[in-house]
Amino acid sequence: LDFAICTTTFQLLRNHTMMKPSQRLRLIAAAILPLLAVAACGAAEPKLEYEKFDAKNFDHSTTIDNEWFPLKPGMRYVWDGMNVDEDGVEEGHSAVLVVTDLNKVIDGVRTVVCWERDIVEHELEETELYFAAQDNDGTVWLMGEYPEEYDGKKLDAAPCWIHGINGARAGIMMPADPIVGSPSYSQGWAPAVGFTDRASVYRRGEKTSVSVGSFDDVLVIDEYNTDEPGAFQLKYFARGVGSVRVGWRGE
């Protein structure tokens, strides 16, 4: 690239010797700036699809007390609402999450085992164990998932992924200090089973109301997958409570 810039400058000086100095400078700048831009782009670090993970940064990993995403054994969340399928038909949809007192060690990090069930029109559609841990900075990590998907009463699929196996990498469930405008983050990277979800901090200071009450100063996280353009799931978090509502934006 240095050679290209020198060659370009020499050619311009040779071919435009009758120009005024100010004109020659403008012409040289117009020719060289695009080359410098290429150099800057080429020097930039490639964006990683997954988060940098340090297993040594988890001294009290099962104490998950992030103010936006607390997970204490015995906690139980129930979300009731409606789901709209691909044909535009509304369906009753419930999700139930239980934080168990079980632990699982993954890559040297002790995780909390959480059990979640998705029920559509009174039928179990998916049940899942997921493994969460909090690092020393207060970030809550997703270390893996074992889901079971059902078609009626028949087990249809179990696209499990665990950090460190088949190229899977842990992702972030909740940042320690979620800031609007900060870069998006991976919620987990497991291309072997098609799990490449990402999220970003969408809004702060929102208000929302659900059947159990109203919440102020709500944090909204925007979740998406690049393989499904135009589909965005919004999750609403109340301080000290956790997720209180799930919505969407886009089509």
Question: Could you state the order of secondary-structure elements as H and E?
Answer: HHEEEEEEEEEEEEEE
Give the overall form: globular
Provide the helix percentage: 10-25%
Radius of gyration: 25 Å
Structural class of the secondary structure composition? Answer: mainly beta
Question: How much of the polypeptide forms β-strand, as a percent range?
Answer: over 45%
Low-confidence stretches: 1-13, 32-46
| Main beta sheet strand tally, sense and closure | 9 strands, antiparallel
- In whole angstroms, the N-to-C terminal distance is 45 Å
Task: Give the tally of β-strands.
Answer: 14
Count up the helices.
2
User: Quick check: average pLDDT?
Assistant: 86
What is shown here, in short?
It contains 2 helices and 14 strands; from the N terminus they run ααββββββββββββββ. It is mainly β and 251 residues long. The strands form 2 sheets. Strands 1, 2, 3, 4, 5, 6, 7, 8 and 10 form a 9-stranded antiparallel sheet that branches. A 5-stranded antiparallel sheet has the order 9-11-12-13-14, with no helix packed on it.
Tell me about this structure.
By secondary structure, the protein is mainly beta. The protein is built from two helices and 14 strands. The chain has helices spanning about 1-15, 20-45, and strands at about 75-85, 90-105, 110-120, 125-135, 140-150, 155, 160, 170-175, 185, 190, 200-210, 215-225, 230-240, 240-250. It is globular and about 50 Å long. The two termini are about 45 Å apart. About 20% of the residues are buried.
